[in-house]
Amino acid sequence: MNNSKVAHLENRAKQLRRKILKLIHKAGSGHPGGSLSATDLLTALYFGDILQYDSKDPHKPGRDRFLLSKGHASALLYCTLAEAGYFPEEDLADYRKINSKLFLSGHPHPKTPGVEIASGSLGQGLSVAHGIALGIRNEFPSARVYVVMGDGELQEGQVWEAAMSAAKFKSTNLIAIVDNNKVAQDNLTKDLKDIEPLEDKWRAFGWETLRIDGHDMSQIMDALQKPVGKEKPRVIIADTIKGKGVSFMEGQTAWHGVAPNDEKLEAALKELA
């Protein structure tokens, strides 16, 4: 991948982080930590010519599907969808408001243009993604289903039931991405239930497994552009940093679900200038 495209995507990710923080600040609530950790991943998917979508026709039958299983990162999803043209950016002003006309609630709602499923009950996204992958693969063999999961939800058994099913049915049109930021709501993931060794586990469950630096745009794009195989679903384990891009948020449980005040927002935006 050429350096100019990498630089372009890196700049888009930086600007997207700024929008996320402004959005959460304006709403007075939200989840900055997990939104910032996955920003590079969604930037690559939506603006790196990976995800095949038509924002003017969100229900186009042959589209790729994107599911955000870690639904608390809704600020990231909504800012991405607005930038991708699914709805005007000024509509983001309704984020987390009652009676939002686009249903821009704290967790994604399928009535929002570009949102495929309601999510936020962690551990369910991979199951739904696999069901969709099974449902579309015969009629639309070139379509892909991408699902971004948090590392904390890998502690739930439903994830591994879905992983077994996807391997059983050879769902090669399914690509799971783990936002492995290693920090849960109020503790480090490893101190709750250690999910490592992740690569060994996914391979044992029958998946093609890639592990990357989830903030290295070249690595992200290389993983997403790699042709799918003929036998196994794929998981991309993206090692990330919670709160990436803002020094006082990085790796901190305190910024899981807290909106920055005026002072913290100003400091964060300076770092992302």
Description:
Helix content is 38%, strand content 11%. It is of the alpha/beta class and 273 residues long. The chain has a single domain (3-271), classed as 3-Layer(aba) Sandwich (Rossmann fold), CATH 3.40.50.970. It has a five-stranded parallel sheet, with helices on both faces. Strand 4, helix 9 and strand 5 form a beta-alpha-beta unit. The longest helix is centred in the N-terminal third of the chain and has 25 residues, at 3-27. It is globular.
CATH class label: Alpha Beta
Number of strands: 5
The Rg value, from CA coordinates, equals 17 Å
**Do you know the CATH topology?**
Rossmann fold
In short:
The chain has 273 residues and is an alpha/beta fold. The protein has ten helices and five strands, in the order αααβααβαβααβαβα.
Could you give the topology of this structure?
Elements: H1 3-27, H2 32-37, H3 39-47, E1 65-68, H4 74-83, H5 125-136, E2 145-150, H6 157-168, E3 174-180, H7 189-192, H8 198-204, E4 208-213, H9 217-225, E5 234-239, H10 262-271
Helix pairs in contact: 1-3, 1-4, 1-10, 3-9, 5-6
List the defining traits of the structure above.
273 residues, alpha/beta, Rossmann fold, 10 helices, 5 strands
